[in-house]
Design brief:
Elements: H1 4-33, H2 38-53, H3 58-78, H4 85-104, H5 112-137, H6 141-157, H7 163-189, H8 195-218, H9 231-242, E1 247-248, E2 262-263, E3 268-274, E4 280-285, E5 287-288, E6 293-294, E7 302-305, E8 324-330, E9 343-347, E10 354-358, E11 364-368, E12 371-372, E13 377-382, E14 387-388, H10 389-392, H11 397-400, H12 419-429, H13 435-447, E15 452-453, H14 467-475, E16 477-478, H15 480-493, E17 498-504, E18 508-512, E19 517-522, E20 526-534, E21 538-542, E22 554-555, H16 580-639, H17 641-656, H18 663-676, H19 687-698, H20 702-715, H21 724-738
Parallel strand pairs: 1-2, 14-22, 15-16
Antiparallel strand pairs: 3-8, 3-19, 4-17, 5-6, 7-10, 8-13, 9-13, 10-11, 11-12, 17-20, 18-19, 20-21
Length: about 750
């Protein structure tokens, strides 16, 4: 018998071990997916385990967990610590949108909040299943085995190092199974629970576990014959290379693999209330790999600031007298700030949030207690910078040699970059005297040398092919990523520091009043462009992509008409080479080419939309069907276990052979099958009384015979007086009867 206090101590100890094993699941999942907020997920696990320990009412337990999940979504995605009707309605709206996207197979349309809901449901179900194994089955072997397999796969197929995690789980799992075995031993033998008896069994178990762990740790280990680093990433790369599907447009964090077509997506991302339409900067990236853009590995250094404080950006704002205000209202849960050029401060007092800017990429994130949060609306002050044409025309190659080493990161190029890329850049800019004109020469080169803007006719570089080289010399067809990356690389080959910029282009105006206009920016406006550093001037933005007007921020302060330049570099013409009549002719040709290109794109889209969309969604549907089949099979196996489990036991003991069959596992397996069929031993009921109850149910004496043999084995060192053939016969009869 067990006292209530000892029962609680034992139960809490078991659940503590379970919690520590669940931590080993959560840590790699959160780390590999970049989910964050692991503390809040662990708190939910504690809530689930606690409600099971306290055996709370089902409705009350459900409400507690539901309220916690809603609070989590509001805190993480809405940026509020308290419940509000507005935040709740937004979450409900995202839930409906995600459900519709899930039904349609649009995996990119599923929101982050909905993914979090699915993750909470998974944790909820996992804890319930473990509770069932722990309290009903008194065995967690399957959970232990699954955890080991999971960690082994994660360690093998990803960059996550699970060496110590596997050791910890082995220790916890063996300890858990040992404790459960000891508890079953006390329960089945009807021995009164005493601390000294329990200690006599627990101490050897702990000594064995510690000794085994130390032995395994200090023993020499042979290295693996093969190394499979990040196999999942390689598999996804292979899939991307093999897939002919069309991607989804919109801002994404990962730019390591550029190329491939995409679909249009006019869903709104944010609304802007300001005076002028403009580009919205998010971040810059510096490391070009030959396939795409990456950020430097290691720690991310940041600079923190608050509302109303000056933001330390490398792009300096314009004059104070030209200051404007902008108010952003986000429609998507982005945890970063949209930056107008010339951003000075973020203005919204009486709020607990603060901000930090990532020094390497200048992405600005709102935070609460150092955790990234979603800020649904914010206002800011900015002054668009202006550049003196006179100063720009004074920039020279000789000035580049005087730059500090801090700018070397903006000159990085992969060793595999083909030399003809640099040769082309030199050829394009050979007649230009200043750095500003060299940059504009590259912009103009794309306009008049057979390049075209296309969302569909966009190639993906092969394994040994450079992304920029492929675009410049082979395909000559692509969208903003192709043009902007190519310009950055060519500028760097000339020794001009340059960086790749991501954000959104100008939105569509939807309303206006006397002082303010309102613009909608959609996923279609996701864009990339170029920033180059010109000595004596600073960082300056350039727009090389065909079809985009770009930036009109150059102040024409040169009086000499021969040196006059159009303020917008996209429309700059070489006065010595282009006459007024030629300008008009080229403009007409461009308009004609754009119309033909648009017509061609529409035809291509009509021809390939159905096929490509089906190809894009096919993989998701197949995976969904496979997962659904697996779940249904598991459920079917679970629901029919009363039928197939007895047959499995008969096969299991037939394989062992009569001489290897022991009465204890035989009897315990029979007790489990009886419990599945509604015949469980009552608390305090002796085995003999229970045997009589079973025999009365089936009209036999088989259970009493087996119970006698079991007790003789358990309490006596001698062999049972009952013949083994007789025992096996009785057991088979009962098992066959239970299996129908």
């Amino acid at each position: 018998m067990t006292s209530p206090v000892m029962r609680w101590i034992s139960l809490i100890g078991l659940y503590l071990i379970i919690f520590l094993m669940l931590v080993e699941w959560l840590v790699p999942v959160v780390q590999l997916t970049g989910t964050g907020h692991i503390g809040l997920f662990l708190a939910f696990v504690i809530l689930c385990l606690g409600s099971n320990i306290l055996e709370l009412n089902g409705v009350l337990s459900f409400l507690m967990k539901f309220v916690y999940v809603v609070w989590f979504l509001m805190y993480v995605y809405m940026g509020t610590k308290f419940f509000s009707v507005e935040s709740f309605m937004k979450i409900a709206e995202e839930f409906v949108v995600s459900m519709r996207a899930l039904i349609e197979g649009d995996w990119n349309g599923i929101t982050d909040s909905f993914r979090s809901i699915l993750f909470f449901v998974l944790l909820w179900m996992t804890v319930y299943l473990i509770h069932h194994w722990l309290t009903i089955k008194h065995s967690v072997f399957y959970f232990f085995l699954t955890t080991i397999i999971f960690l082994c796969l994660i360690d093998t197929l990803t960059n996550y190092n699970a060496d110590f995690a596997i050791i910890r789980v082995m220790i916890l799992g063996i300890l858990l199974m040992g404790v459960l075995f000891i508890n079953r031993l006390f329960k089945n033998s009807q021995v009164k629970w005493q601390p000294q008896y329990y200690s006599m069994l627990m101490i050897p178990l702990i000594i064995m576990i510690i000794g085994s762990a130390l032995f395994a740790y200090f023993m020499p280990k042979k290295q693996a014959l093969i190394r499979t680093p990040n196999a999942i990433a390689h598999l996804m790369d292979w899939k991307s290379g093999q897939s002919s599907g069309i991607g989804k447009i919109g801002y994404v964090e990962d730019d390591s693999k550029l190329g491939g077509p995409f679909e249009e997506d006019n869903r709104p991302v944010f609304e802007v209330a300001t005076k002028t339409n403009q580009y919205w900067r998010i971040e810059t990236k510096n490391i070009y790999t030959g396939k795409g853009w990456e950020r430097k590995e290691g720690d991310i250094y940041v600079h923190t600031f608050g509302y109303g404080e000056e933001i330390p950006l490398t792009l300096k704002p314009g004059k104070k007298k030209y200051e404007d205000k902008a108010t952003i209202t986000l429609k998507k849960n982005y945890k970063f700030i949209m930056q107008p050029y010339g951003l000075e401060t973020i203005d919204q007092p009486n709020d607990e949030k603060s901000f930090y800017i990532e020094i390497d990429g200048e992405k600005i994130r709102p935070t609460i207690n150092e955790q990234k949060v979603f800020l649904p609306q914010y206002s800011m002050t900015y002054s668009t910078p202006e550049y003196s044409l006179k100063a720009l025309e004074k920039t020279r190659n000789s000035d580049l040699k005087k730059l500090s080493k801090d700018y070397n990161q903006y000159l990085q190029l992969p060793a595999s970059l083909p030399k003809r890329v640099q040769d082309l850049a030199v050829e394009i800019t050979k007649d230009e005297k200043n750095l500003y004109d060299k940059a504009n020469a590259i912009v103009s080169y794309f306009q008049y040398n057979g390049y075209r803007y296309s969302r569909t006719d966009v190639a993906v570089p092969s394994k040994n092919q450079d992304y920029v080289d492929q675009f410049l010399f082979e395909t000559k067809s692509g969208y903003c990523d192709n043009f902007s990356t190519s310009m950055v690389v060519m500028l760097r080959t000339l020794g001009i520091p340059a960086r790749w910029v991501k954000g959104f282009s100008e939105g569509d105006e939807v309303a206006s009043d006397d002082d303010t206009s309102h613009f909608i920016v959609t996923n279609n406006n996701a864009h990339s462009w170029v920033e180059a550093y010109l000595p004596g001037v600073g960082w300056m933005s350039f727009e090389p992509t065909i079809g985009f007007d770009g930036f009109d921020n150059v102040l024409n302060d040169v009086k000499d008409e021969q040196n006059e330049a159009t303020i917008n570099p996209k429309k700059k013409e070489n006065a010595q080479a282009k006459a007024a009549e030629q300008k008009k002719k080229e403009k007409q040709q461009q308009e004609k080419a754009k119309k033909e290109e648009k017509k061609q794109q529409q035809q291509e889209k009509k021809q390939s939309q159905g096929k490509d969309k089906a190809a894009t969604n096919q993989l998701g549907k197949i995976v969904s069907i496979i997962v659904l089949i697996i779940i249904l099979v598991i459920i079917l196996f679970y629901l029919t276990r009363k039928k197939w489990m007895p047959k499995w036991l008969l096969i299991k003991y037939r394989w062992k052979g009569k001489n290897n069959i022991l009465i204890e596992p035989l009897y315990n397996d029979l007790l489990k099958q009886l419990s599945l069929n509604g015949l469980s031993k009552a608390h305090g009921q002796t085995l003999r009384d229970f045997a009589k109850q079973v025999d009365e149910k089936f009209g036999t004496e088989h259970m009493s015979i087996l119970t006698q043999a079991y007790e003789e084995t358990l309490y006596s060192k001698e062999e049972p007086t009952i013949d083994k053939d007789k025992m096996i016969e009785c057991w088979k009869y009962l098992i066959n009867h239970l299996g129908g």
